[in-house]
# Entry
Amino acid sequence: DTAVSQTPKYLVTQMGNDKSIKCEQNLGHDTMYWYKQDSKKFLKIMFSYNNKELIINETVPNRFSPKSPDKAHLNLHINSLELGDSAVYFCASSQDRGGLDEKLFFGSGTQLSVL
Amino acid sequence: AQKITQTQPGMFVQEKEAVTLDCTYDTSDQSYGLFWYKQPSSGEMIFLIYQGSYDEQNATEGRYSLNFQKARKSANLVISASQLGDSAMYFCAILGTGFQKLVFGTGTRLLVSP
# Structure
């Protein structure tokens, strides 16, 4: 059983299109995240949700809109895709017991290529 | 602000040797946690080891150990008896009480040669 699963694994699309990436976790975790990994491998948080409530919203263009229908799902919708959106997007989850040992469990990533 | 610095973009090691990957951090929090993750070429992020700022002992997990020097704000990862499968990107990260997100360094690419 995959703990954090995200689909699709690869997404190739044209500039200007709208696309979504889905994420589901079966770990019973309370908090879910979206991270972006750029071409230099740098990982940066975009959003986090705790029990469907938005907790962290980094400086991300408002073309990016996360949606959490329930605490096991956190989807990422991207409008009007731009070349600079090309990256690997990782979904992750954590238990969020409030401790500093809260390790993140990551999905396998979605490689987004905007042409 | 919290920051992780990994100064080694790439490291080479021969199989069966030990290797140390450097990580220094900057935070104003008194309590924080330090993490190492491995990202093989397949792309997934794999948790390796954790060290709490108040842990007196250095963390160990199998062949991985963390050389934690709080005064120097360093948390170096030591991999003993390197294996070919250890070839990957390695990321150091920090989580503090004052911020609710894991902040990553830029990573070190490790290549293990036969």
In short: The first strand of chain A starts at residue 4 and ends at 7. Chain A is about 0% helix and 55% strand.
